[in-house]
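2 proteins. here.
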Amino acid sequence: MKRAVLAAIIMLISICSKGQSADIDVYSDKQKKIVTIVYSSPSKMFLDIKVFNEIGETVYTGQINEEKGKCVKIIDLGQNSKGTYTIRMKNDSFTKLRSVDF
């Protein structure tokens, strides 16, 4: 089976940032405990990413700092225990939160 189909939760977020449109797609693979963030923007944008466990501890910190176009960030949470994780995606103009269950 294709990875995107295998136990994936697909959430599409449309955001507007300083008059420019950007998209964030978040895919989670429950069997492999992998989160894939696909971020696209018509101009260069910075995105700070943090993942928190159920008790608020930071289990991942990363960034997307790419030129315009599409960027893919894969986060492997396989070494973490089962539970609900909150993904915070933030820049100067917005903050978006998404939860995934593993």
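next one coming up
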Amino acid sequence: MKFYRYHQNNSGGRLLVSEQDGITSNVWVEARNARIANALFDIIAEDYRSGCPCCGTRWDAASEDDGEDEPQTEDWYSWEKGKYCVPAATVVHYLDGRIEWLPVVELLPEARP
């Protein structure tokens, strides 16, 4: 099994978050391959698909190259390409139906830009 990451685009100027449904800025899905991960994610994110003409779609589909052996937590640089920003939350949807929120990684003050 592999884990496939779905990174939420800040479409419309806001991120959608649901603790109950396991939706946040970085969502990982455990699956045998990307096609199955995409099908599972379509169900998981069914109510969180909004986008806008200027920002584009909220989520991109995973490819086979995106598969990782373990889900990764994201850091301060995860979605601002080096700019200082709030830490990115990460949630994992396991094949057995469990949803796990991973701890946020924070850089020490001396490591921040």
